[in-house]
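Customer escalation, tier 2.

The customer says the design service returned an amino acid string that "doesn't look like it belongs to this structure." They asked us to rerun it and document both sides in this ticket. The original structure tokens are below, unchanged.
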């Protein structure tokens, strides 16, 4: 008796809700882009558990494929990471020019950058 293949439509639905591209999901999960596409489109009946878990983890889902972290929480965390990275680059450049940024100004710039990242295109949020 042949068993029914697993249905990963919930993973793909979550990816779409996050407005994350296949490429961004592949990069963050460490699973190749073609494999991500095959798994999420249901064309990979023999998807490895490691690959499925890697995708679910990035999408904020657990093994039951239920929401583990609200979408806004994942987006906020990514915006925080990206904002800090961007502001550190500005801080480094300013330091080289002899115009160091105070810790208060740094936090202020990070908050503003987070706001701008969350208000803009979600695809840009997930880009490198």
């Amino acid at each position: 008796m042949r068993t029914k293949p697993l249905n990963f439509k919930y993973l793909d639905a979550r990816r779409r809700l996050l407005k994350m591209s296949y490429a961004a999901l592949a990069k963050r999960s460490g699973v190749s882009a073609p494999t991500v596409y095959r798994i999420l489109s249901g064309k990979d009946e023999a998807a490895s558990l490691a690959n499925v878990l890697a995708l679910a983890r990035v999408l904020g889902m657990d093994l039951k494929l239920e929401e583990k972290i609200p979408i806004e929480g994942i987006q906020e965390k990514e915006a925080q990471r990206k904002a800090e990275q961007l502001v550190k680059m500005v801080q480094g450049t300013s330091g080289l020019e002899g115009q160091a940024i105070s810790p208060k100004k740094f936090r202020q710039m990070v908050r503003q950058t987070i706001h701008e990242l969350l208000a803009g295109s979600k695809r840009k949020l997930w880009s490198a």
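Tier 2 assessment: The sequence is consistent with the input. The radius of gyration is 18 Å. Helices lie at 9-17, 22-29, 33-41, 49-58, 71-96, 103-119, 122-126. Sent an explanation to the customer and offered a walkthrough call.
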